[in-house]
Amino acid sequence: MKKTTVDEVLQQGIYGPLETKPDERRKFLGNLRERIVVALTKSQVAETSVYPKVEKEMKERPQSHLFLNGNMSYETLSKYVKLVTKYKIEHTLVTNKEHDSEIGLVLAMDHAIDQEDIFITNKEPVLQQEVKKNKGFFAKIFKK
After folding, report:
1. DSSP states of 63-93
2. Which CATH number fits domain 22-143: 3.30.1330.30, 3.30.70.260, 3.40.50.300, 3.30.565.10?
3. Does pTM surpass 0.90?
4. pLDDT per residue as tens digits for the range 40-54
């Protein structure tokens, strides 16, 4: 086991305890990437409607915790605050004055889940577009 030096003790006394992956925590509103269920950017949170996938994940995971970027206006965040109240999920407004993250919302667990795709995109998946094209092609053949 490594012995701590006087300098390390002083540094921790001044700046607080050492933190794992500080850049990742700043980006994801205090969370580690491996714990995140879903994340939205500030511009996505600012849209008028709530993302259905966020609501679906809240229904399915009542033990999750919602983190909202406190540097955004409350009017923008209020629709998600209403959702967490509806599903009885805890939430936290995270305000970091030294670093303003581009992330506006993070729904996270208290343990690692390692979900592959955490960001929501409005684009339709490529596979669905290809299926629609193929249906159109076969529809033309069978009409004749």
Report:
1. T-EEEEETTS-HHHHHHHHHHHHHTT-EEEE
2. 3.30.1330.30
3. no
4. 999 999 999 999 999
